[in-house]
Write a structure and sequence with these properties.
Elements lengths: L1 H10 L4 H8 L3 H13 L13 H12 L3 E5 L6 H4 L1 H10 L7 E4 L3 H9 L8 E4 L13 H12 L2 E3 L9 H9 L1 H8 L6 E5 L9 H4 L3 H4 L6 E3 L2 E3 L5 E2 L12 H6 L2 E5 L6 H9 L5 E5 H10 L4
Helix pairs in contact: 1-3, 2-3, 4-15, 7-8, 14-15
């Protein structure tokens, strides 16, 4: 009878009064039987601990050794757009002022958070973190991101009107141009870098990232930041075009007080871990599902 009473109450959701009436016993008897069912392990009641975004943020910072992080509850739609508010919070905490330099990368996440809005910080200098790309897709339009970010901040944009991957000879010509030289010089003064974290090409189709054949051949890459590829342990992986790029170097990203990776996809867990280990990002803006995937993938320190 213990099992029957337990199933009627906990699975069929019948009240103790209705069960007593059906079985022809007293309500007190049903109450005692339910207590015995719990005592004998026939019924086990578990209270699930709710993990808040704040809890996940603390775990993420501790597990990865980040300088800072901001995690939001995963929304049902518009995850990348929703990252704009926590990014704005980190930017405000960074105490940027007139003359501070914010370097901006490319990618879907970076595009969406800028389009969604940034805090007003008048006088901030925004600069492209790489040269441009001859691609029509909106997430490659880095100079447009720089212009829009400057408009949101109330600052001044600094564009780089040069391809990110010219020939070795043309690279020197581009860098000899006064406007490009002045913009690139801001990379050494960067206070905050806002960058995306790329997926490995085995997951991310080459056309989605406009990867060259040399990049596509990096089968052991866990991901990239500004086309600087790394494995899961954070070891940088050289490739044919690395020395020709017009882009912030790993050393310049590591020197930035705050290099914020913006990402929202559990698939990027290993790439995020590799980016942190490589020193290419030291802060992260993400959602709870992605953060939990990172925590589950990386063992405790």
């Amino acid at each position: 009878m213990l099992h029957t009473v337990a199933k009627l109450h906990y699975e069929a959701e019948m009240s103790q009064v209705d069960i007593a009436r059906q079985l022809g016993v007293s309500t007190a008897t049903i109450s005692r039987l339910l207590q015995r069912a719990r005592a004998e392990g026939i019924v086990r009641i578990e209270v699930i601990d709710l993990v808040t975004p704040e809890d996940v943020t603390r775990q993420l910072i501790d597990r990865l050794g980040l300088r800072d992080a901001a995690v939001i509850e995963t929304p049902s739609v518009g995850a990348l757009t929703a990252l704009s508010a926590p990014l704005g919070g980190l930017l405000k905490q960074a105490q940027l002022a007139a003359g501070s330099v914010v370097a901006i990368g490319w990618g879907r996440a970076v595009r969406e958070v800028i389009r969604a809005g940034l805090p007003r910080i008048p006088g901030v200098l925004t600069v492209a973190a790489t040269g441009g790309m001859q691609q029509h897709a909106p997430h490659f339009q880095i100079n447009e991101f720089v212009r829009l970010a400057a408009e949101e901040f109330g600052g001044t944009p600094h564009f780089i009107h040069a391809p990110y991957l010219p020939s070795s000879e043309l690279r020197e010509v581009f860098l000899g141009d006064a406007a490009i030289r002045d913009a690139v010089a801001l990379w050494d003064r960067t206070d905050v870098a806002i960058v995306g974290v790329g997926l490995p090409h085995a997951i991310n189709a080459p056309e989605a990232s406009a990867a060259t054949p040399s990049e596509q051949a990096l089968v052991h890459a866990a991901g990239d930041v500004l086309r600087h590829y790394f494995d899961a342990d954070g070891v940088l992986i050289p490739w044919e075009g690395e020395s020709r790029m017009i882009a912030m170097s790993p050393a310049q990203l590591r020197a930035a007080p705050l290099a914020i990776g913006v990402a929202a996809s559990p698939e990027k867990a290993t790439a995020i871990i590799g980016a942190v280990r490589a020193g290419l990002i030291n802060a992260l803006v993400t959602d709870t599902k992605t953060a939990q995937a990172v925590i589950d993938t990386m063992p405790p320190r």
